């Protein structure tokens, strides 16, 4: 399978502030992201995961190493718009990423910036809003919407640029359970339609739905694999200041008491299936 | 020390087209030393209720009696209410404003009119309680701290007022798992040391189940259920009807039961779920 | 509550006024304001009020909504009214101690107040019926000639539209901060002027911090969505003047001409 993103020996330093040392946020990461895949990135605050997201979109430029998005070097000024169009980004705070006072105008903002023809923008905006099920809100003002709805508008704004990949930087962190649920469902739908998805999150129940999980700690990838592989290292994950999914935690505890639970019991559904074999 | 709320109602935008009953005839009692969890989806009236308890919103009708004193009565001083009831808002780190951590925490106690020495000792005590080292951080700017630390400093600012009732609105929102645990432990510590009433509003059912003695469920301005976590979370269907969930482990037990297995669905935390599943599996093994 | 302020907000409904080209509307409002300062007698004000009343009726914006927009300027209104009523010489009507109300004072005060009210309603009708984006687009195009001499018209328009977008957000933020500080015992009502000014610090500092955070986040989000200034930008909603716009403009010119005529002929 083709890779849409390739990262080679990436290092990133935040510029020196007065009286402080250079802060090395990313300490040597090499990584490929397959086209159409769904990758969850987990790490505590300050682990470098958000920095990584901003590097993928060309908002930051590597201090050392290279990032290719569809073979474009993100540090190459000639292709920065290609990179940003290909790898769209949704941020954490639903309020602070909507530019316009009208939902549909906001969604149009991206395509307008890249010089899309007016008719084409209209088509894209309508489709994007329908994809996130916000069509009926197209003339509303963002401040009248709930957090989850705003976040869906933000996703539509990215979709209208026809990205091949979307990087979600903790999109559900500030939402209530309903908003979280809705946004996650949309993320999964988009992935099913072929959009490469990178989801940065604190929520383990979201991470288990990905087909690949990366755990980042202190600027380095400490675990990388499918959810079953990664979450079998429960102790390392906890040492990195993170949780493991409920079902994994239960499995670990039950194994300690002598019950043989297979390694691939990761989600609640897996655990339910496991228990239900014994009738 | 206790709280009695009687016939409390509040209407937003009274007389306008957008009139909305935010609180509809609320009645409840909270007793000395209780930890109370309030759940309800966004817009159910939780925030409005909290702000009433703190006197930030005046009741349209009804009474709120805190420690024998009716705070809805005319002529009651705000300072008197604030001394009794401390309210920590959502994302409280956004209200930090002073040059140093110590000064920021001192803001509340100073407003209560306490002596300088008393303020100082309260600041130290509050910071210690939220596990922020006074000597290391006291003279630093609060804006230099990490997200989790800022949140703890902001909470310390209310704890330092030594309220008999401490209300926290979504205290763990947006935090990573480590910082989340820190906040939960800090709430437990404060409760143990001050034995005050704690009112916790949260969307995280696991936290509510594990911390609370009593859970109150709100929906569209009404208080629809009050009970122990066990009682409330045993009514999964009722909660689902108003878009609320049970804790994740409890949900799992229900799903097992739905598949035709006779299993106890009462566990609210991992430890008890572990025991129930373990015992179930052992019993099956014995029968084989 | 602070959220009740409707000034500068968009009222989402479809009406002939809403559908007008923003450039036409901006020019009309400018003309209307000019007219308000040209008229100086009773008939003129009746005419101006009637014209505006007609526009409001056609716009389908509820009167109550418009009146709420006046709330924040009540103070200014009372201030102007009092200044005028007591300060202008003429035939004395009433005497209250050293304060004198004269006929000229009364007329001027009434005219000034009506003028102010009509001015506020007129301009707010523009924002009620025009989305901020269209408004700033219209401004940008009207000001376009200035960009030839180096005026950053696109940037100005963008700044304005973003300000409008974040007014409600910042108001909500202010509301929250005020409540949070009140919960910590802050007192904004008592004490002398200095004490009160000082009591604003706990509100202003967090508000600035919030505004900065929003600005940083937003700049990042705009960049991520390929924003690079006004160059090569297209628009989803292009602007075209149609016959409705021409009729609207013609009516406005007629009104403007009438006010001038009225002034000259007297």
Description:
The complex is a heterotrimer of chains A (279), B (288) and C (266). Chain A is of the alpha/beta class. Chain A contains 11 helices and 10 strands. Chain A has helices at residues 49-56, 80-86, 103-113, 118-131, 147-159, 177-192, 204-207, 227-231, 234-239, 246-256, 268-276, and strands at residues 3-14, 23-34, 38-42, 64-69, 72-73, 87-90, 165-169, 196-201, 212-217, 220-225. Chain A starts with a strand and ends with a helix. Chain B has 2 domains: 3-231, Rossmann fold (3-Layer(aba) Sandwich), CATH 3.40.50; 247-288, no CATH class. Helices cover 42% and strands 21% of the residues of chain B. Chain B has helices at residues 46-53, 78-84, 101-111, 116-129, 134-137, 147-159, 177-194, 205-211, 229-233, 236-241, 248-258, 270-287; strands at residues 3-12, 20-30, 35-39, 61-66, 69-70, 85-88, 165-169, 197-201, 214-219, 222-227. The longest helix of chain B is centred in the middle third of the chain and has 18 residues, at 177-194. The A-C interface holds A 54, 57, 59, 81, 84-85, 88-89, 91, 93, 95-102, 104-105, 108-118, 121-122, 125, 139-143, 154, 157-158, 161 and C 9-10, 12, 131-133, 161-162, 164-165, 168-169, 172, 213-214, 217-218, 220-228, 232-238.
Summed up, the domain count of chain C is 2
The unreliable regions of chain C are none
The number of distinct β-strands of chain C equals 2
Number of helices of chain B: 12
Average of per-residue pLDDT values of chain B: 92
Shape of chain B: globular
Judged by helices, strands and strand pairing, the structural class of chain C is mainly alpha
CATH architecture heading of the largest domain in chain B: 3-Layer(aba) Sandwich
| CATH level-4 homologous superfamily of the largest domain in chain B | P-loop containing nucleotide triphosphate hydrolases
CATH top level of the largest domain in chain B is: Alpha Beta
Q: DSSP strand (E) fraction of chain B?
A: 15-25%
Percent strand of chain C: under 5%
Low-confidence stretches of chain B: none
Key structural traits:
heterotrimer; A: 279 residues; alpha/beta; Rossmann fold; 4-stranded antiparallel sheet; 11 helices; C: 266 residues; 2 domains; two-stranded antiparallel ribbon; 3% strand; flat
């Amino acid at each position: 399978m083709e890779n849409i993103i390739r990262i080679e020996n990436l290092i990133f330093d935040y510029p020196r502030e007065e009286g402080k040392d250079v802060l090395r946020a990313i300490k040597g990461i090499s990584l490929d992201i397959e086209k159409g895949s769904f990758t969850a990135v987990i790490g505590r605050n300050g682990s470098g995961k958000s920095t990584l997201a901003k590097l993928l979109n060309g908002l930051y430029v590597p201090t050392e190493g290279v990032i290719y998005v569809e073979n474009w070097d993100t540090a190459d000024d000639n292709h920065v718009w290609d990179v940003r169009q290909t790898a769209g980004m949704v941020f954490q705070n639903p309020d602070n990423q909507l530019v316009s006072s009208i939902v549909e105008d906001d969604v149009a903002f991206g395509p307008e910036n890249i010089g899309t023809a007016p008719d084409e923008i209209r088509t894209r905006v309508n489709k994007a809003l329908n994809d996130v099920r916000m069509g009926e809100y197209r003339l509303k003002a963002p401040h009248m919407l709930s957090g989850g709805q705003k976040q869906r508008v933000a996703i539509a704004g990215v979709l209208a640029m026809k990205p091949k990949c979307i990087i979600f930087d903790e999109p559900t962190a500030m939402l209530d359970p309903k908003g979280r649920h809705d946004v996650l469902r949309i993320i999964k739908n988009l992935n099913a339609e072929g959009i490469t998805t990178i989801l940065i999150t604190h929520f383990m129940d979201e991470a288990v739905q990905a087909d690949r999980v990366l755990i980042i700690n202190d600027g380095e990838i400490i675990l990388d694999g499918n959810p079953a592989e990664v979450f079998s290292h429960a102790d390392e994950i906890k040492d990195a200041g993170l949780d493991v999914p409920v079902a994994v935690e239960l499995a670990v505890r039950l194994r300690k008491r002598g019950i043989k639970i297979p390694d691939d019991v990761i989600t609640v559904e897996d655990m339910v299936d496991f228990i239900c074999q014994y009738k | 020390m206790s709280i009695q709320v009687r016939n409390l109602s509040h209407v937003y935008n009274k007389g306008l087209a957008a009139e909305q009953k935010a609180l509809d005839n609320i009645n409840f009692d909270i007793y000395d030393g209780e930890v109370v969890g309030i759940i309800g989806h966004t817009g159910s009236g939780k925030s409005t209720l909290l702000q009433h308890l703190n006197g930030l919103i005046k009741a349209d009708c009804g009474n709120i009696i805190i420690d024998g004193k009716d705070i809805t009565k005319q002529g009651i001083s705000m300072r008197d209410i604030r001394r009794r009831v401390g309210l920590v808002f959502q994302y409280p780190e956004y209200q930090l404003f002073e040059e140093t951590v110590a000064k920021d925490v001192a803001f509340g106690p100073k407003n209560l009119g306490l002596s300088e020495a008393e303020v100082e000792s309260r600041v130290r005590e509050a910071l210690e309680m939220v596990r922020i080292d006074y000597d290391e951080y006291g003279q630093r700017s609060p804006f230099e701290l990490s997200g989790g630390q800022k949140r703890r400093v902001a909470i310390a600012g209310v704890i330092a007022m030594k309220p008999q009732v401490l209300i926290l609105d979504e205290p763990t929102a947006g935090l990573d798992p480590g910082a989340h645990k820190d906040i939960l432990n800090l709430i437990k510590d404060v409760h143990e040391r001050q034995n005050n009433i704690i009112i916790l509003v949260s969307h995280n059912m696991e936290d509510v189940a594990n911390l609370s003695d009593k859970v109150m469920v709100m929906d569209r301005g009404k208080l629809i259920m009050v009970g122990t976590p066990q009682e409330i979370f045993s009514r999964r269907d009722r909660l689902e009807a108003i878009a609320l969930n049970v804790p994740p482990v409890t949900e799992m037990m229900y799903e097992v039961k739905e598949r035709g297995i006779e299993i106890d669905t009462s566990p609210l935390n991992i430890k008890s779920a572990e025991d129930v599943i373990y015992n179930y599996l052992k019993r099956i093994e014995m029968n084989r | 509550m602070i959220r009740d302020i409707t000034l500068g907000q968009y009222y989402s409904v479809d009406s002939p006024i809403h559908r007008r080209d923003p450039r036409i509307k901006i020019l009309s409002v400018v003309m209307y304001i000019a007219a308000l300062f040209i008229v100086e007698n009773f008939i003129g004000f009746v005419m101006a009020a009637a014209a505006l009343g007609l526009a409001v009726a056609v716009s389908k914006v509820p009167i109550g909504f418009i009146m709420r927009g006046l709330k924040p300027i009540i103070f200014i209104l009372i201030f102007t009214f009092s200044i005028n009523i007591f300060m202008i010489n003429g035939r004395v009507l009433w005497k209250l101690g050293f304060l004198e109300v004269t006929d000229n004072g009364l007329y001027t005060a009434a005219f000034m107040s009506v003028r102010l009210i009509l001015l506020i309603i007129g301009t707010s009708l523009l924002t009620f019926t025009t989305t901020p984006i269209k408004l700033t687009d219209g401004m940008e195009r009207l000001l376009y000639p200035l960009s030839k001499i180096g005026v950053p018209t696109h940037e100005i328009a963008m700044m304005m539209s973003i300000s409008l977008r974040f007014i409600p957000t910042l108001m909500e933020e202010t509301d929250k901060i005020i409540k949070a500080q009140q919960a910590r015992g802050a007192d904004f009502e008592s004490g002398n002027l200095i004490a009160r000014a000082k009591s604003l610090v706990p509100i202003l500092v967090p508000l600035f911090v919030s505004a900065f955070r929003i600005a940083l986040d937003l700049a990042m989000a705009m960049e991520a969505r390929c924003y690079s200034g006004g160059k090569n930008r297209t628009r989803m909603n292009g602007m075209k003047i149609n016959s409705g716009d021409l009729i609207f403009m013609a009516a406005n010119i007629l009104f403007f001409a009438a006010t001038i005529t009225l002034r000259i002929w007297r």
